[in-house]
UniProtKB/TrEMBL annotation:
SUPFAM superfamilies assigned: Creatinase/aminopeptidase (SSF55920), Creatinase/prolidase N-terminal domain (SSF53092)
UniProt KW Metal-binding keyword: yes
Record-linked InterPro entries: Aminopep_P_N, Creatin/AminoP/Spt16_N, Creatinase/aminopeptidase-like, Pept_M24, Peptidase_M24B_aminopep-P_CS, X-Pro_dipept-like
Keyword Membrane recorded: no
EC numbers: 3.4.11.9
Cofactor(s), by name: Mn(2+)
MF annotations from Gene Ontology: aminopeptidase activity
Originating species: Candidatus Doriopsillibacter californiensis
Protein name: Xaa-Pro aminopeptidase
Alphabetic keyword roster: Aminopeptidase, Hydrolase, Manganese, Metal-binding, Metalloprotease, Protease
CDD domains: Prolidase
């Protein structure tokens, strides 16, 4: 949860974003609902996480809430936040609610109301509009209500109201906004990346005394929690050949001295995600084979980072990293042929089978596309935040030279695209020398 001072900054940003959305839409009625609490088992829930779009526009973190915006001529004509009313008995069990009265002041929203009035306010405000903006398919109950409204309007159009002309996906506008991070978001992403990096430092320090992946994970998560963060996704703590399973998450295998440990984890701070990967030796010292593979991935990451600047495309970044990885695989004897044929035949894909990175923001795989609708590469623009994460995963298979079998290495950093180039937001030890020094520190 954001502190009071931080909350105020987030709130003023959300107010500005609602105004921006109104400008983009022109005329229409926007309906966004908070995510439902997710049941974990029987009567226990997962920790509550608001829907990213709803949070982006409200900064509000309670379930059973909704935002209604009536937009006319590019301005907000009416804005209403609906939330749970105060209830002493329920709050005694489940914690304090903000309630509509305080929400109005703290969230700087013109009107607030108890969520029990949702249906009546919805039909009230919707009657003034013929374009509806929502996230179809994310809230089945709301979808059903909107379809009823649409069919009722058509059936009763003898009076002055026109039928609903369009049910629009508001993500088209919100994704375009979320893709370019504003100042407040950049601050929070910077912090999320810093806490993520600190978690990795703690994990590296813990590895020498860890007999099992779970102990490394515990050190990582302790660092996140003590910095006021959660994890943005289930951490990957993969020792030995488990590192070759891209989304490994069992995190319960023994850590052996001869293993490399791959940790892919990110802190979530005030809703914003970090996503950092480091790979380090359990013994504190890379073997020769591990060092060879590691240095290839590191070189590929360096190349890709150099290519991060406005105007460059994802494929340009991908190509420079892939070329370095492919050349490395040839040098290791794992790919046969010239660099040209290895790239052309995609032979490297046996060892590198994912993409170079993704957008990062409120979601770890954040909104935004690598290509536009026409299939053309979208160039990077200042204000985007991306990950850069090449890797090599050498299977434990008979045709592979024994020392290389089961080595998995990925190196991932979080990067802000700036006007002149980039700013790397994450900063855990990355060269072999720095990693070994830190582990022994
Ligand atoms: Mn990632």
């Amino acid at each position: 949860m954001p502190s009071a001072a931080l909350g105020a900054i987030i709130v003023s940003a959300t107010r500005r974003r609602r105004t921006q959305l109104a400008k983009r839409i022109g005329d229409g009625f926007v309906i966004l609902t908070a995510a439902a609490a997710a049941c974990r088992s029987r009567d226990t829930n997962y920790p509550y996480r608001p829907d990213s779009y709803f949070y982006y526009l409200t900064g509000f973190v309670e379930p059973q809430s909704a935002l209604l915006l009536s937009v006319k001529a590019g301005r907000i004509a009416r804005e209403i936040l609906l939330c749970r009313g105060r209830d002493r008995r329920t709050e005694q069990w489940n914690g304090e609610r903000l309630g509509p009265l305080r929400a109005r002041r703290q969230l700087q929203i013109e009107e607030t109301a108890d969520i029990m009035y949702f249906d009546s306010l919805l039909s009230d405000v919707v009657s003034e509009h013929d374009h509806l903006y929502c996230l179809p398919g994310t809230d089945a109950a709301l979808d059903a209500k909107l379809i009823t409204i649409i069919s009722n309007r058509r059936a009763h159009n003898r009076d002055s109201t026109t039928p609903i002309q369009a049910l629009c996906d508001v993500s088209l506008h919100l994704d375009a906004m979320r893709l370019i991070k504003d100042t407040e978001e950049i601050e929070l992403l910077r912090k999320a990346a810093q806490i993520s990096s600190d978690g990795h430092r703690a994990a590296m320090r813990a590895v020498r005394y860890s007999k099992n992946e779970m102990q490394v994970e515990a050190a990582l998560v302790a660092a996140f929690r003590s910095a006021g963060a959660h994890y943005a996704f289930e951490p990957i703590v993969a020792s030995g050949k488990n590192a070759c399973t891209l989304h490994y998450c069992a995190n319960n295998a023994p850590v052996r001295q001869r293993h490399l440990v791959l940790v892919d984890a990110g802190a979530e701070y005030c809703g914003y995600a970090g996503d950092v990967t480091r790979t380090f030796p359990a013994s504190g010292k890379f073997t020769e084979a591990q060092a060879d593979v590691y240095d290839i991935v590191l070189a590929a990451q360096k190349k890709a980072l150099t290519a991060i600047k406005p105007g460059n495309t994802w494929s340009a970044i991908e190509n420079t990293a892939t070329r370095t990885l492919a050349q490395g695989l040839i040098d290791l004897g794992l790919c046969k042929g010239t660099i040209k044929t290895v790239l052309k035949k995609s032979n490297y894909q046996r060892f590198y089978m994912h993409r170079i990175g993704h957008f990062l923001g409120l979601d770890v795989h954040d909104v935004g596309r690598h290509k536009n609708i026409a299939g053309k590469q979208e160039p990077l623009r200042a204000g985007m935040v991306v990950t850069v994460e090449p890797g090599l995963y050498i299977p434990d298979e008979p045709d592979i030279p024994a020392p290389l079998r089961g080595i998995g290495v990925r190196i991932e950093d979080d990067v802000l695209v700036t006007d002149n180039g980039k700013e790397v937001l994450s900063g855990a030890p990355k060269t072999r020398t720095d990693i070994e020094a830190w582990i022994h520190g």
